[in-house]
Amino acid sequence: MNGTQGLVFANPVPEIKRLAREMDMEGKVCVLSFGVGSQMADVNQAIEDCMQAGHWLLLQNYHLAEEPNTSFFYLLKHIIYSRWSDDGNNQEQTEDTGRSLVTRSCYSSHSRPAVKLSNSFRLWITTKADGNRIMPGLLVQHGLRVTCELTVNFPSLLGKAYKSSAFLMSAKAASGEQLIQRFNRVIPLALIHAILVQQSYYGRHGFVNNHFWTIADVASAVEIFQSLSVWTNDMEAVPKLITNVYSDHCLDLRDTQIVESVVKNLLGVKHSAEGNHGAAMLLNKLSNNIKETNDLQKTLDSIDNNSAQTYCLPEENEEMHIALKSKIFFKEMVQVTGAPELLLSYATSANLLNGVSKDVLDSLQAHLEACPMLPDISVDQIMPMDEFFAQEIKMYKNLINTIKNDMQTLAKAVVGKITLTPDMVNILDAISADQVPAAWLKNTFVTCKSLDAWLAMLPDKSMYVLQCYNRCPDVLSLNMLMRPDRVFHVVTQSYASKHFKDLTDVSLELQVMPYDFKTEAKPSVGLYVNGLVLKNAFWDKRTCVLSEATSCEGGVHQFPVVWLKPISTVSRETAANKDLYMCPIYSSSDPEYIKDSLLLFCIPLPTKTSPLLCAQRRVSLALVQHVL
Predict the structure, then answer these.
(1) In a domain, 36, yes or no
(2) What is the pLDDT of residues 202-237, one digit of tens each?
(3) Which of these three, 312, 337, 360, is where a domain ends?
């Protein structure tokens, strides 16, 4: 961790000290952090001292602890079992009702440490939910409170980024007016770094890949900003150059667009109502607050909202991040408690298969038996659209045959007739986790996580493409195709072939139809398509533009029919529209599959707000995961 980053997790010390003041224990709180080698003896001694003195002890970062020794667990047992009354221990317990039988397994008195436990003693332990070391089972079973807390460290992170940027700029303020001038000069660069680093804490729910921005990136951004501000007043090139500093870490186009939108939104904002959106909204709030307080720390403390929207993330990302961490924490609790009913509950809630049996393979085989018999059709067709559907039928037929052969092989392996090759073992592992094997996705895109749901749609999809070959529907469902990305190119090829034009002279214009649009026939030119959903935004029915998302389950909204209209490039009027957002289309709405390799196409959509805000909110289109 470097000087530009704050604590990755919420610091519990202020909250515990506040509670200590309320309980008349101020000055009696001891804090000890794990992470130093050969410190278990110091930890044990600190526990014994606080037990005798009646102080509170906070042990932080247990996931960084070395291998605990037996004396550490003896102390934990002593703390827990010493709270029982002698009368309660002498009571006979012969049934499973009442108090847990686990708590009755108190060890013999001769093994207890000769340390008296004060009534005012309290022990607090914090750990990372997905760390290398799980919480001791005794504490999970008998702890007063076991929770998974959110990260609330953004003000600390921004403060460190601001101080680093100000130091690199060698900016020293003597008066209140100079403080405000320095703040307005430094805070945009500090916010860029803080927002990007904070979003990277969310892992796959923030960026496609993990990025490690450090103080070196801050130094490069400061150098670019100072060098250009000295020699020229034209600062339009600054956002582009600073974007390159941070986007050079990105290997995915989506991550690059997010970085670019944050940088341009912060460095291009004018302190007015027009810039009051996205990251610029937070910048304006901080700039106004520093004028009132003339104090940096009070300005940072004014960031009272610690939700993901504060640093330009959709609410869905925060909810899914919390669910992921809570699932990890719940699994650790199951491991340390050893309760079989909790393990069964966890497996059921996650929809995971503990193993592959013959019954599981038979249930998957039933989906394949429902698939129609696809004919052998030549892919050498005259019209590009006919050739496209012929290729779809051929790919579906090959996919079904491949799956059937693999399932037959696995069925033999389950009963012990054959051994599996490494490739078949990978397929077996994917089926065990209810995931679509990568070997079955070589010629198509993944559309959903669940293998059962994916195979359940296969009969309908294969029948649909066969019907499309016989007669192209008025509205083509993109989610029913193996290669929906080819549709956009086939439309232009069909237009060029019909009108005897060069393919380079034809471009594609996309027009979103009204929600109540009823198709009575095919369009005069081009194709109607549907089967799309809109993520992290809402399509305004009245104005037909993108607007901020309203409350909706999963943050997903049905998108209307789109007209793919090919036109001649020569006759097309090219007018730059700054309010158009190039919205990407992905094969799935699941955040795990939002990446370049699953990008189908990008379509321009009008928006009420700035396209930069849409990029920050991760607005995108995806294929519907069910049959329309």
Answers:
(1) yes
(2) 877 788 888 888 888 988 988 888 888 767 666 677
(3) 312
CA separation, residue 538 to residues 556, 563, 607 (Å): 8, 19, 10
Q: How many domains does the chain have?
A: 3
Helix (H, G, I), strand (E, B), or coil: what is residue 595?
A: coil
Q: What is the CATH number of the domain that holds 580?
A: 3.10.490
pLDDT tens track for 482-501: 999 999 999 999 999 988 88
Same-domain status, 23 and 138: yes
**The token pair that represents 63 in the structure block:** 């996931």
Nearest CA among 323, 325, 311 for reference residue 206: 311
* Phi and psi, residue 509, nearest 5°: -110, 130
Q: The domain spanning residue 170 has which CATH number? A: 1.10.8
Domain boundary among 108, 142, 176: 142
Question: Do residues 34 and 46 make contact, with C-beta atoms less than 8 angstroms apart?
Answer: no
pLDDT of residue 195 exceeding 60, the answer is: yes
Residues 6+ apart with CB under 8 A from 366: none
Q: Which residues pair with 547 in a beta bridge?
A: 538
DSSP secondary structure of 153-219:
-HHHHHHHHHHHHHHHHT----SHHHHHHHHHHHHHHHHHHHHHHHHHTTGGGT-SS-----HHHHH
Banded model confidence at residue 532, pLDDT cuts 50, 70, 90:
very high
Question: Which residues constitute the domain of residue 597?
Answer: 510-518+528-627
Same domain, 305 and 196: yes
- Give the lowest-confidence range in 141-150, 207-216, 397-406, 527-536: 141-150
User: What would the pLDDT profile of 418-456 be if each residue is shown by its tens digit?
Assistant: 888 889 989 988 888 889 999 999 999 999 888 999 999
**Long-range contacts formed by 260-265: CB under 8 A, 24+ apart:** 260/615, 261/611, 261/612, 261/613, 261/615, 261/616, 262/192, 262/195, 262/196, 262/312, 262/616, 263/192, 263/239, 264/239, 264/612, 265/610, 265/612, 265/613, 265/616
Catalogue the E-assigned strands of 468-575.
475-477, 506-512, 527-530, 532-535, 538-539, 546-547, 556-558, 562-568
> Is residue 583 scored above 80 in pLDDT?
yes
pLDDT at 142: 65
Residues paired with residue 530 on neighbouring β-strands, in sequence order: 477
Both 137 and 178 in one domain: the answer is no
Q: Is 4 strand, coil or helix?
A: coil
Give residue 140's pLDDT band: very low, low, confident or very high (50, 70, 90): low
pLDDT surpasses 60 at 341: no
Count the alpha carbons within 13 Å of 454 in the hemisphere toward its beta carbon. Answer: 23
CA–CA dist 374, 382 (Å, integer): 21
How confident is the model over 284-331, as pLDDT tens digits? 888 888 888 888 888 888 887 667 777 777 777 777 777 776 665 556
Query: Which pair of tokens denotes residue 306?
Result: 């610690």
**Same domain, residue pair 187 and 47:** no
Indicate which CATH number applies to the domain containing 106. Answer: 3.40.50.300
Domain membership of residue 424 (yes or no) is no
Q: Sign of torsion, CA 569 570 571 572?
A: positive
Residue 581 covered by a domain: yes
Neighbouring C-alpha atoms within 13 Å toward the C-beta of 362: 3
Question: What's the whole-number average pLDDT of the chain?
Answer: 79
Residues 47 and 179 in one domain: no
Tokens of 101: 């039988």
Q: What is the pLDDT of residue 201?
A: 80
Same domain for 252 and 170: yes
Say if 623 falls within a structural domain. Answer: yes
Separation of alpha carbons 137 and 378, rounded Å: 64
